[in-house]
Amino acid sequence: MMRATALFLTILALTLTLSGAPGQAQSLDALRQSGAIGERYDGYVAVRQNVPGAASVAAQVNAERRRIYEQRARQQNISPAQVGMVYAQQIVGSAPAGTWFLDQSGTWRRK
């Protein structure tokens, strides 16, 4: 029961973090929609176009995701990189059409 609760809380925290705080969520969503920020294969975001605020939002989102990935990795006794790859797959599945994704070969593709 405790493991299920911990898993639920981790997923909830990640969901809230991936969308960010309300102001940040709007910024991240808007920047993804415009194509200025894209999602990477490793669960982090990357700046695609140098527009005002994009680098700052990307740094904030990535710092929070890194914290969550490291926490989850410690719980599961795996590497943060493995956690990021799993969450990247979930992000791809839940991201709206038009979102840009960077694959491992360095190619940007649009959903």
> How much of the polypeptide forms β-strand, as a percent range?
5-15%
Instruction: Give the tally of β-strands.
Output: 4
Order of helices and strands: HHEEHHEE
Q: Compute the average pLDDT.
A: 84
Total of DSSP H or I helical runs spanning 4+ residues: 4
Q: Compute the gyration radius: what is it? A: 14 Å
Class from helix and strand fractions: alpha+beta
- How many separate domains make up the residues? 1
**Poorly predicted regions:** 1-23
Q: What shape does the CA trace take?
A: globular
- Helical percentage: 55-70%
Order of the strands making up the biggest sheet: 2-1-3-4
Question: What does the largest sheet look like?
Answer: 4 strands, mixed
* Straight-line N-to-C gap: 37 Å
Set out the fold topology.
Blueprint: H1 2-19, H2 22-34, E1 37-40, E2 45-47, H3 54-76, H4 80-94, E3 100-102, E4 108-110
Parallel strand pairs: 1-3
Antiparallel strand pairs: 1-2, 3-4
Structural write-up:
- By secondary structure, this protein is α+β, with helices and mostly antiparallel strands.
- It has one domain (2-110).
- Helices cover 62% and strands 12% of the residues.
- The chain is built from four helices and four strands.
- It has helices at 2-19, 22-34, 54-76, 80-94, and strands spanning 37-40, 45-47, 100-102, 108-110.
- A four-stranded mixed sheet has the order 2-1-3-4.
- Helix 1 (2-19) packs antiparallel against helix 3 (54-76), helix 2 packs across helix 3 (54-76) and helix 3 (54-76) crosses helix 4 (80-94).
- The longest helix has 23 residues, at 54-76.
- The chain starts with a helix and ends with a strand.
